[in-house]
Amino acid sequence: MPWPALALLAFVGVRAAGRYLAYGTVEYRAYDGVLVVYDRLLSEPRARLEGTAVTDASVERDPVDRAFDTRTLAVDGADDDPGSDIGLTVPDPEEVNDDDANANRSLRVVHVADPTPIAEALGAAWHLSGNAERPLTDLRRV
Fold it and tell me: Would residue 43 be called left, alpha or beta, if left means φ above 0 and alpha means ψ between -120 and 50 degrees?
């Protein structure tokens, strides 16, 4: 086998392994107003998103979604911080935030047949309908 074919095979293998580790071992658990990303391999939760922290939701389709007739739900969270938590000095104990670092950050629920029940569990289905305004029923719950 020529070396370009081996390099291509190695590249595809590394990409497939990375995708499996990122998405293949997780399951999404939707509770009343909370979406938890649970890693079955580590038996630990990876991330959590509360419905009150959802700022936007959209449905995307990549080539894999089109091939298998699935969709990807992208949910934006309120606690997305573009800055780094790494500092050059040790902070004072009062300044340390003990909150979960992976709480209320943006999530992508990949390759689901119907993303609507997940968005409804978060109270964010109105984002998917394309309406510019939040329904009055949702405003009363907040």
Answer: left
